[in-house]
Amino acid sequence: MKAIYTSVFSLLFIGTIIAQEKETPDTTRINLGEKEFIIVSRGDIEIIEGDTIDAAPDEEEQAEIEAHWAGLEFGPTILLNDAMKSSFPSDPQWENDPGRSFSWNLNLLEHKFKIYKNYVGITTGLGFNWTQIGLRQYQLNVDADSLWATTDTINDFKKNKLRAIYLTAPLMIEFCTQGEGDEGFYFAAGVIGGVRIGSSVKRTIEEDKRESKEKIKGSYALNAFRLDAAVKMGYNDWGVFANYNVLPLFDTDKTAAVYPLTFGLTYNF
Length: 269
Prior knowledge:
Elements: H1 2-22, E1 26-32, E2 35-42, E3 45-54, H2 59-62, E4 71-80, E5 102-116, E6 120-134, E7 138-142, E8 147-151, E9 156-176, E10 185-207, E11 210-217, E12 225-235, E13 238-245, E14 259-268
Antiparallel strand pairs: 1-2, 2-3, 4-5, 4-14, 5-6, 6-9, 7-8, 9-10, 10-11, 10-12, 12-13, 13-14
C-alpha cells in the first residue's frame, strides 16, 4: 500500500512540474536607444534577461538618407552689376550675350547629415562647374593693372567666349517630404563655394567662308574663388535651381564688379 501512495505522489509531482514548464510566462520588452530589456514574469518572480541585447532598428532607422546634390544642372548665365542690373556703361563688354552664356554643373559626390530623419538635413558634397560667357565682338586684354576690351571690327567672331572651370562644394539645409530616399518634393537653400582650376578664351573666326579657331589660356583677372547663394527645389529626379555669385567674378581692382546669375534645370542622379 505504501508503494502505491508513493507512486501516486510521484506522478502528481511530475505533472505539476510539467504544467509549470508549459505555462507561458508574461514578457515585457523595453527599448532604450539601441538596447532592449526583457522582463519575464513567472508567478511572483520577475527575471530581467538580455539587458545588453541590441534592439532591432525600426523601419525609420533603416531608411536611406538621400541628398539632392548629385546630378546635372544646366542654365543660362546673366552678368549683373552692383545694382543688380545687366547694363555696364563703362564696360560694355560685360553686357554678355545670354544666348551664348551658360553654366553646367556636374555634381558627383554628396552626403546628407540628418537633423530629423530624412525630412531635414545638411547637404554637402563635391562637383564641377563650367561657366561660359559670350563676349560678342570684344577681345579681352589684361595686364598687371587692368582688364579691358577692344572692339574687333575686322574679324567676324562666330564664337567668342570666356570659359572658367571650378571645383565646387555646397553647404545647404534641405527639406524633404519623404522619410526615406530621394523621392517626393524637396527644397534646399545655402551656399556653394568654388575654386577656379582653369580658364581660357576660345574664339572661332569666320573669314572667306573658312573658320579658324584659337584657344588662349589665362586667368583674365578672374577671382580664384567664388561663393554662390543657392536655392533648388523639385520633385523626384527633376527640379530647378538658381545661383547668384555674391563674390565679384573678376578682380575689382582691374575691372568693374560683375556678379553672375544662373538659373535652370536640375536632374538628380
